[in-house]
Amino acid sequence: MCAPRIVHIAHDAAARTNRRGLFGGAVGLAALATVAVAPPAAAVPAGSGGVVDLTHTLTPQLPVWPGNPPPAMLPVAWHAVGGFAQQALAFWEHTGTHLDAPAHRVPGGATTELLAVRDLVAPLVVVDISAKADDADATLTIADIENWQARHGRIPPRAFVAMYSGWERRLADPAAFVNLDAQGTAHAPGFAPEAAEYLVSRCDVVGVGVDTLSLDRASSRDYGAHTAILGAGRYGVEMLANLAAVPPRGATVVVGAPKHAGGTGGPCRVLALT
Length: 274
Known about the structure:
The chain is an alpha/beta fold.
């Protein structure tokens, strides 16, 4: 265990980074060093028995929602002193590849430790909207869902539906990933609220995911997709990786959700089993 002072130091380090403007606005974002990005995973067909990591590596350089501090990692123990290495970690819950619990949006909603474990292992459906994601305000619509079903069959009950926009191609340039306009508003694709409601009411999904920073398109101010998904007791996962490497259907997703009491979400390890 780390002394409380160590944890405060780690948080202070994150706050100092934020005050330097690294994630506080368009000018600071443009000044960021590029993020070291792992090569995209190779495509894995359904039924191959492969495993695809849908998780970005958490680093202080990984883009975060504007105004949030980056994660901080501070060594607090060393092999040379005591024989073990250890770091103190400090991050806001909604950092990196992370889960949104219902409580993130809904007062009194389920928190991380109350999520049904059976819903964290689910059929994986990937809906590709990358062809229209040159429009940073593009959304996954009901028409996209119906087109997917026309090609691949009905979405299975209790599935996890992920939007693939190709946005992770911007990851090496954090400013382009967050994509702030002159007024400081972020722009990136997400779920249309009516599509999110359709997935809950018509398809009975356990949750949805995106390869961007928000379930809603980033410029939204009413957060209708968050409300539709989380308000129905489902969960979301934001900033997924490598969705292009998994088939549109036939894989299983495993969401290694955080389990801290009262949590509104948290970084998670997400795997696709093909």
